[in-house]
From TrEMBL:
GO molecular function: exodeoxyribonuclease VII activity; nucleic acid binding
Function: Bidirectionally degrades single-stranded DNA into large acid-insoluble oligonucleotides, which are then degraded further into small acid-soluble oligonucleotides.
Top-level taxonomic group: Bacteria
Domain Exonuclease VII large subunit C-terminal: 131-445
BP GO annotations: DNA catabolic process
Keywords: Cytoplasm, Exonuclease, Hydrolase, Nuclease
Domain OB-fold nucleic acid binding: 15-108
NCBIfam families the record matches: xseA
Organism: Sedimenticola selenatireducens
E.C. number: 3.1.11.6
Name assigned to this protein: Exodeoxyribonuclease 7 large subunit
Assembly and interaction partners: Heterooligomer composed of large and small subunits.
Length: 455
């Protein structure tokens, strides 16, 4: 009978199911990079959360997959059972059921990769050729006389464009060029519409638009002949193909790219409300300018009227009479000022003459001597006080630096006899040595019994 090792049993590393699934998930996610996987969709489920769950299968196997809402919102097509797709995914494990699964980051219909490569090649060739250069872009008219819309007459895009145009600027007439926007005939249909618009020149602005879709759905707008026709147009064109995330060759070569059909309509026309506000502002400015001009002309007329009255002979005679009266008053005032000035000068001369008599000069010199004597006494006294103060400061400093002053503050000086060397280190004395200690009021002779160092 085999023996049972109780201690070894206690040392077992026992996993819980949750721990096992968590560590397996970490191993899977860390062992595989992002993968491209192709297969057919089955068991598709779309709960209210916005996530989608499905199986991806081939003739021999299947694997569970999940695509969360944040990634699903960028899909340009609607996934459905039986559709063959290509996904870019991370390998993972759903811990709740211990189920191996793929987390899809991107999904596209199978075969779209070839379309994408063709799209990129054509885009690169046309860009190198210069079809996308901003130098070829035309300026849109501020207020178009007529707008041509090249799109499907039954699609949602035409409804969005017309609704916005009627709301923003209903006065502009619209001309619809119906075309196919998807399928084999779509490029030729769009090309014919562009040529017709160029030949007839009924519009001074064109909008090329359709709703969103997959890359395959939008291939008519990635056609080289359509791109060159747009480039050769003499009429400005706005391209609004698909959703914000969709880009086509037509977008790059057009004079302006709009992310959605509605935005294209907003870019094509001004807002009538803004125009009405500008017209109202201009009307007010014209009214105010007219009023100011009328006021200015009225003031000019009154000024001319006053000028005519001032030029009347009677007024001129009155002005001259008043001028003579003013001159007479000024002459009398000037004579009075001259007489007053002469009197003041005479009085000043008398005062100056009095101040120069010998008696006055002697009195002034005596007063000056007295003042100088008092000033000298004040200077000598101040100088003596300053010297007394400086002497006190020097005496205080001398006393502070004197060894006797230090003794008065409670300190002492110890000498080692018989040489009376100052003792400043305990290691310089030994038991039996004679010491002389100087304090403030005498000396003390002592003998060393023992020594100790504090270091």
């Amino acid at each position: 009978m085999p023996s049972y090792d109780l201690e070894a049993d206690f040392q077992r590393d026992i996993y819980s199911v949750s721990r096992l699934n968590s560590e397996v998930r970490a191993v899977l996610e860390g062992s595989f990079p992002l993968l491209w996987v192709e297969g057919e969709i089955s068991n598709l489920a779309s709960p209210a959360s916005g996530h989608i769950y499905f199986s991806l299968k081939d003739p021999h196997a299947q694997v569970r997959c999940a695509m969360f809402r944040m990634k699903r919102q960028y899909l340009r097509f609607q996934p459905k059972n039986g559709l063959k797709v290509l996904i870019r995914a991370r390998v993972g494990l759903y811990e709740g059921r211990g189920e191996f699964q793929l987390i899809a980051e991107h999904m596209e219909p199978a075969g779209e990769g070839d379309l994408r490569q063709a799209f990129e090649r054509l885009k690169q060739d046309l860009q190198t050729e210069g079809l996308f250069d901003s130098a070829h872009k035309q300026t849109l008219p501020k207020i178009p006389k007529r707008i041509g819309i090249i799109t499907s007459p039954t699609g949602a895009a035409i409804q969005d464009v017309v609704t916005v145009l009627k709301r923003r600027f209903p006065a502009v007439p619209l001309l619809i060029y119906p075309v196919a926007v998807q399928g084999e005939e779509a490029p030729r249909s769009i090309l014919n519409a562009l040529r017709l618009a160029e030949r007839r020149r009924d519009c001074d602005l064109l909008i090329l638009t359709r709703g969103g879709g997959s890359l395959e759905d939008l291939m008519a707008f990635n056609d080289e002949s359509v791109a060159r026709a747009i480039h050769n147009l003499s009429i400005p064109l706005i391209s609004a193909v698909g959703h914000e995330v969709d880009f086509t060759i037509a977008d790059f070569v057009a004079d302006l790219r709009a992310p959605t059909p509605s935005v294209a309509a907003e870019l094509a026309t001004p807002d009538q409300q803004e125009i009405q506000e500008k017209l109202f502002t201009l009307s007010r400015r014209v009214t105010l300018a007219t009023a100011r001009q009328a006021q200015h002309k009225t003031a000019s007329f009154k000024a001319l009227e006053q000028r005519l009255l001032r030029g009347h002979p009677g007024n001129r005679l009155q002005q001259q009479q008043q001028y003579l009266d003013d001159l007479y008053v000024q002459l009398n005032r000037r004579i009075s000022v001259i007489i007053s000035t002469k009197k003041t000068t005479l009085e000043l001369a008398k005062t100056k003459l009095k101040s120069t008599t010998p008696t006055t000069r002697l009195k002034q010199q005596d007063e000056r001597c007295t003042t100088l004597h008092h000033r000298l006494q004040r200077i000598i006294k101040g100088h003596m006080n300053l010297k007394h103060h400086d002497l006190g400061l020097i005496a205080g400093k001398l006393n502070a630096l004197s060894p006797l002053g230090t003794l008065d503050r409670g300190y002492s000086i110890t000498y080692l006899l018989p040489g009376k060397d100052v003792l400043d280190d305990v290691r310089n004395t030994h038991p039996g040595d004679t010491l002389e200690t100087r304090i403030s009021n005498g000396r003390i002779i002592s003998s060393v019994l023992t020594t100790s160092s504090e270091q």
